[in-house]
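hey so u asked for the seq, here:
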Amino acid sequence: MNIRRLSTRQPDFNTQLDKLLAFETTQDHQLDETVAAILADVRTRGDVALLDYTRRFDRMDVHDSAALELSPAVLRAAFEGLPAAQRSALEQAAQRVTAYHQKQLQVSWNYVETDGTLLGQQITPLDRVGLYVPGGKAAYPSSVLMNALPAKVAGVGELIMVVPTPDGVRNALVLAAAHLAGVDRVFTIGGAQAIAALAYGTATVPRVDKIVGPGNAYVAAAKRRVFGVVGIDMVAGPSEILVICDGQTDPDWIAMDLFSQAEHDELAQAILLTPDAAFATAVAQSADRLLAQMPRSVIIRTALENRGALIEVADLEEACVISNRIAPEHLELSVDNPQQWLPNIKHAGAIFLGRYTSESLGDYCAGPNHVLPTSGTARFSSPLGVYDFQKRSSLIQVSAQGAATLGEIAAVLAVGEGLHAHAQSALFRKGTCTD
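ran it, structure tokens below
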């Protein structure tokens, strides 16, 4: 396997790194036009359009919109029908994800100033959230847990899940995860048409306040277009992993960690930063040897050869500098005393500390959310969390004495902006103070 080798000592290293990180985000205009037409059609024709697209794209013979919804009994049966090991693993993962996200729960607060004025913030959950779950080959029950459980912890009133079932094939683990996570309603629709139904509502599918969850290019384009009508979590790019290793971890472990993200799709990115050139060579040799064992070897090879790299750095300090430049979705610090390097890390979606902390544990059961910022957006974005399903309202209750003090300040500023009604509104109340 021909994985790119780079060194920070190369004169053109910065140029090479920029080329490695470049990801074409230009939207396909034809795809975007198709998505726009689907959104408009569902907005206009509602359930009729949904049925048409489900027959066309998912090859399902459905003519009644009621047939698009799965009953709670179907979800429960999927859960109860799982092999014991799968059911137990799903339950343990759900417990850990719930426990972690309960720590994120924000509460309302306020304080009272000396003149009796109250200021604060009221925290309220969203009323209704839509969860998009991929179907077909890309079926991820772990994503159901990671999206649904924080919403439930936040207190979201109703959680609506949409999942395509091409040719009528349902993924039992996905449905079981929906049951376990407390999803309220599930509809067997997908693609841009499902996003349209959630954003605009139909006679059958209720309109939501926010849409979360991963999807293909059509789903991503649809989420971009409906943002503003509803909230969205993010528009995610290909999966990424960056490993910083001092050369003392088993090279087989590191090679497999790189594989773990490369196997998602051909556009995934897996990079190793190490000050030990011999270790980089050992990882490359491990990758060559282990690749044949992988069922998704073709995808892994393509991803590693096109967007992967083994990069030699001067030292771990330089590795941290480059890591911040990359701002990876997943960052493994496979070094001794990894916590000493945390102050050096400014930009990363999730940070995995130590040699025994494989990124894959975070994908499934460690507890923190696996919905993370990609494509360098960790510079300004955060993992999905309970806070994404809560709103904040400012609280202002001004006392009579406070109205006199604040009214004077507000009036001066309002007149300076040429907004005299604002000034008078503030000054009228100033006159009521008898103190």
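The mean pLDDT is 95. The chain has three domains: 4-23+237-366, 29-232, 398-430.
lmk if thats what u needed
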